[in-house]
């Protein structure tokens, strides 16, 4: 029954009106009005719609909303708070270090793929704080960018990793 | 200055009664009247606000290239304001001037001078006002951060905002105000960051795909999976509306062969479009990918000699060496990363359409015909989508939403699915190029002939066509012809003949401009020819080009890339025969319709698998005055990666009835793991006018990649994309 399903997104609990088989993406876009996850292919091929589910990068375009019941969903908008809770920071920064690094490197062109890029890179750095370029490229390989921003994205992830290590050492 | 302005000033800046209504309300009124606003009025281009900020009205779309920031740099420079004091607004046919579409890399080339002269005229008017107010001659006034002060007496000053705050200039835009000499530039020429990037990384940016309006239905088009021949469109034989009866609220809208399903919930619309049973006329209309080039050479063509100079045939007969080869280049898709989306709100006598068009005024014209409403009743607003790189489905989806809204009697949001966007794109047309060229005994190019076969761009969008408008093609424009600049135009050659063979477009796929239209194909053929002649002359490719170029700017950009890539250094080549992986480097030149592009590629080729790995790409551009070199470096980086993608992977495939490359598996693009290292060089020329920078290095890169492949393997690729299968065939290992 519509309305009975509850999901936790960015540490807030939401009642879902959509039917349980509705892909999570459509709930995030049309009920929660979030602008991070976005439609790219609907086939889990591009990474445009990626979110973290219990910290694991997940394609929301093919994940039924019912599948995330009882789990914690983090979107692009929730990454700063997610980072703060992971690092046990007293206050969430305005931007996740990966987001800040994308600005610092001016990595963005159209920016439509950056939701997935930032979500995936945040997941990567939470598991591997000091990745090599090759490890970054492998981890990111399932995320496409039509503008060809890949080289600057790799640089930005390296910059974010350094900033996060420096912050942890403080 | 108008009488009105003088009266206003006499009154000491206080609001004067009798100020015309249009003037008073200009700010609010802007938007209520169908545009374009009068380009001959300064008020059309900019407004000064009471808080000493300015709004610049710009007719170019932000496509992720930085146009919205760079044009503000131009305006801020001339106004002597700070970047933090200046902003722009959304493109809107009721609000922003018509500067023509944001294509052909025109934003800075054409838009820059317009914005610059409008801002200069506004500044001159503001200084005149300040001169009266401060009782000081204009020559003694200085402006910084929008504050006019008397030289040597900074206490005597007045802000722009206090001179004019939110009131109109009422000033004719004559274009006669002097502009700053480039030597005084403080903002133009600097690489400040883009203004929209922070919102793009934080999830605050409003892409078209995020827009929602009250009472809106979600729509999805119902079409065959993948287009057939353009002239055929798609014919509905039967629609079984009962097939979606189990989806609550879903309904079918139809005009002719245009079919769209709408529902209150987006997922219901998505499901209904897939579930709807439609019988389409499936008569074969295409040659299929395998027979494409054969059909292209067999078609009846309209031929046009683009350039004829000297006598190519006679020169080739007397030449020391000549080469002649045919090159095959595929259809390629725009493939925007997020499929196009639009929202339309159509009533009996008005329409508001929000979409990601490159040209709000052009889109308004076509919507007028589709909706049978006068253009003055239609308002088009631009919201950025994902990178379009030319004429992707943004007009098609705008028309689809408009038709659906007209049929449904409610606002409708239509988003294309991945297969709609890849299957019904206006593809970059396939091309066959035949090049013949020759040198004399000294290695001097003496003859160059290029024959190119392709079709023109399709003028009618699929939505309109399905709804009843017959297919038609664009008239021949420069970008649809064999391009004299990319086809040998950089070299000094006495005998030249370029011939364009226009195919009957209705018998082929739908086509339109794809970033650097046709130029990758031209350069793939042309720059390999130049390299072959260099080989026959026994001269290094870089040196051969230097000797055959006279134009200082072509030489400059060639030298810039060669230096960046250390191309002149001698290399020791390893044994080619026994190695499993062979390496090579190549150089290439090319452009689109303006600017000068050069590139160097370094590739590895795996002889056993046929895999080509592009290790490094270097690109250099001379586009005159570079307003923001950092943006151009980013554009070059993207162009290099996208060219790698197009040369290695991208090819639209089709059988005799439909396009079959409909997702990222069947239409693969470059991925992270194979993306080359990229290096960008901008040749800054402060005293030359700005020309395009959004696409002008791609042709050069295509040529460089092909030449690097030869350098690695000793074999030539005459067809791209350079897939393992084709590479193995070229290496004789297929």
Tell me what you see in this structure.
The complex is a heterodimer of chains A (170) and B (734). Chain A is an alpha+beta fold and 170 residues long. Helices cover 39% and strands 12% of the residues of chain A. Chain A has helices spanning 24-30, 79-87, 97-104, 114-127, 133-140, 150-169; strands at residues 5-9, 12-16, 50-53, 56-59, 72-74. Chain A is globular, with a radius of gyration of 16 Å. Chain B has three domains: 3-202, Aldehyde Oxidoreductase, domain 4; 209-283 and 334-423, Aldehyde oxidase/xanthine dehydrogenase, molybdopterin binding domain (Aldehyde Oxidoreductase, domain 4, 2-Layer Sandwich), CATH 3.30.365; 290-332 and 427-730, Aldehyde oxidase/xanthine dehydrogenase, molybdopterin binding domain (Aldehyde Oxidoreductase, domain 4). In chain B, the strands form six sheets. A seven-stranded mixed beta sheet of chain B has the order 9-10-7-17-14-15-16, with helices on both faces. Chain B has a five-stranded mixed beta sheet with strand order 12-20-19-18-13, with helices on both faces. A four-stranded mixed beta sheet of chain B has the order 21-22-23-24, sandwiched between helices. Chain B is globular. Chain B starts with a helix and ends with a helix. In chain B, 57% of the residues are buried. Classes of the chains: A alpha+beta (170), B alpha+beta (734). The interface between A and B is large, with 54 and 58 residues.
């Amino acid at each position: 029954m519509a309305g009975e399903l509850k999901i936790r997104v960015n540490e807030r609990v939401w009642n879902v009106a959509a039917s349980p088989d509705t892909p999570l993406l459509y709930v995030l876009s049309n009920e929660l009005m979030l602008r991070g996850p976005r439609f790219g292919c609907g086939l889990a091929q591009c990474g445009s719609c990626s979110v973290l589910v219990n910290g694991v990068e997940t394609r929301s375009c093919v994940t039924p909303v019912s599948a995330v019941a009882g789990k914690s969903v983090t979107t692009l908008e929730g990454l700063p708070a997610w980072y703060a809770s992971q690092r046990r920071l007293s206050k969430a920064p305005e931007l996740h270090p990966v987001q800040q690094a994308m600005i610092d490197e001016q990595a963005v062109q159209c920016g439509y793929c950056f939701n997935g890029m930032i979500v995936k890179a945040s997941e990567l750095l939470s598991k591997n704080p000091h990745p090599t370029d090759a490890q970054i490229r492998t981890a990111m390989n399932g995320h496409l960018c039509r503008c060809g921003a890949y080289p600057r994205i790799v640089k930005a992830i390296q910059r974010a990793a350094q900033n996060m290590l420096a912050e942890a050492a403080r | 200055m108008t009488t009105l302005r003088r009266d206003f000033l006499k009154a000491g800046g206080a609001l004067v009664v009798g100020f015309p209504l249009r003037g008073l309300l200009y700010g609010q009124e802007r938007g209520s009247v169908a545009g374009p606003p009068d380009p001959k009025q300064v008020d059309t281009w900019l407004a000064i606000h009471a808080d000493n900020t300015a709004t610049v009205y710009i007719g170019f779309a932000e496509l992720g290239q930085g146009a919205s920031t760079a044009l503000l740099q131009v305006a801020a420079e001339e106004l002597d304001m700070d970047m933090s004091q200046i902003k722009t607004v959304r493109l809107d046919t009721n609000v922003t001037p018509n500067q023509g579409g944001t294509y052909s890399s025109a934003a800075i080339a054409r838009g820059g001078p317009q914005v610059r002269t409008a801002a200069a005229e506004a500044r001159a008017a503001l200084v005149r006002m300040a001169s009266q107010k401060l009782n000081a001659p204009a020559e003694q006034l200085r402006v910084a951060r929008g504050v006019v002060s008397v030289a040597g007496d900074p206490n005597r000053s007045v802000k722009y905002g206090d001179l004019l705050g939110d009131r109109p200039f009422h000033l004719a835009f004559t274009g006669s105000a002097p502009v700053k000499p480039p030597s005084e530039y403080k903002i133009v020429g600097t690489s400040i960051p883009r203004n929209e990037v922070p919102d793009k990384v934080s999830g605050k940016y409003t892409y078209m795909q995020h827009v929602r309006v009250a009472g809106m239905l979600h729509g999805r088009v119902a079409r065959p999976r993948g287009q057939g021949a353009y002239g055929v469109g798609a014919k509905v034989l039967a629609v079984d509306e009962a097939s979606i009866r189990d989806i609550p609220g879903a309904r079918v809208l139809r005009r002719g062969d245009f079919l769209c399903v709408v529902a209150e919930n987006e997922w219901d619309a998505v499901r209904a479009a897939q579930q709807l049973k439609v019988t389409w006329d499936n008569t074969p209309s295409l040659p299929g990918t395998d027979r494409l080039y054969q059909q292209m050479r067999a078609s009846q063509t309209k031929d046009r000699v683009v350039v004829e100079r000297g006598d190519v045939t006679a020169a080739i007969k007397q030449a020391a060496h000549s080469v002649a080869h045919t090159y095959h280049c595929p259809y390629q898709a725009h493939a925007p990363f997020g499929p196009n989306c639009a929202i339309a709100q159509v009533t009996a006598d008005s329409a508001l359409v929000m979409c990601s068009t490159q040209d709000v005024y052009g889109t308004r014209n076509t919507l007028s015909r589709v909706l049978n409403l006068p253009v003055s009743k239609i308002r088009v607003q631009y919201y950025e989508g994902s990178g379009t790189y030319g004429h992707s489905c943004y007009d098609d989806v705008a028309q689809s939403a408009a038709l659906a809204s007209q049929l449904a009697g409610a606002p409708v949001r239509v988003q294309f699915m991945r297969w709609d966007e890849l299957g019904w794109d206006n593809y970059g047309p396939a091309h066959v190029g035949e090049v013949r060229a020759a040198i004399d005994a000294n290695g001097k190019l003496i003859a160059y002939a290029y024959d190119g076969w392709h079709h023109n761009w399709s003028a009618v969008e699929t939505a309109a066509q399905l709804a009843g408008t017959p297919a038609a093609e664009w008239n021949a424009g420069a970008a649809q012809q064999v391009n004299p600049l990319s086809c040998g135009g950089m070299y000094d050659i006495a005998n030249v003949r370029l011939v364009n063979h226009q195919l009957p477009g209705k018998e082929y796929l739908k086509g339109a401009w794809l970033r650097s239209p046709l130029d990758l194909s031209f350069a793939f053929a042309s720059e390999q020819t130049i390299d072959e002649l260099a080989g026959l002359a026994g001269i290094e490719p870089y040196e051969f080009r230097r000797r055959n170029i006279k134009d200082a700017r072509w030489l400059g950009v060639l030298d810039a890339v060669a230096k960046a890539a250390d191309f002149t250094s001698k290399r020791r080549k390893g044994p080619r025969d026994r190695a499993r992986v062979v390496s090579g480097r190549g150089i290439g030149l090319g452009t689109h319709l303006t600017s000068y592009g050069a590139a160097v590629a370094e590739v590895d080729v795996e002889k056993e698998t046929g895999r080509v790995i592009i290790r490094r790409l270097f690109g250099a551009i001379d586009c005159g005055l570079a307003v923001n070199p950092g943006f151009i470096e980013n554009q070059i980086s993207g162009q290099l990666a996208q060219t790698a993608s197009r040369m290695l992977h991208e090819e639209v495939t089709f059988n005799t009835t439909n396009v079959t490359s409909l997702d990222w598996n069947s239409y693969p693009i470059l991925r992270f793991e194979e993306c080359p290292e990229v290096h960008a060089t901008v040749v800054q020329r402060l005293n030359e006018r700005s020309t395009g920078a959004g696409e002008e290095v791609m042709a050069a890169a295509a040529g460089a990649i092909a030449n690097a492949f030869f350098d690695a393997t000793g074999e030539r690729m005459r067809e791209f994309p350079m897939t393992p299968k084709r590479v193995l065939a070229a290496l004789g290992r297929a």
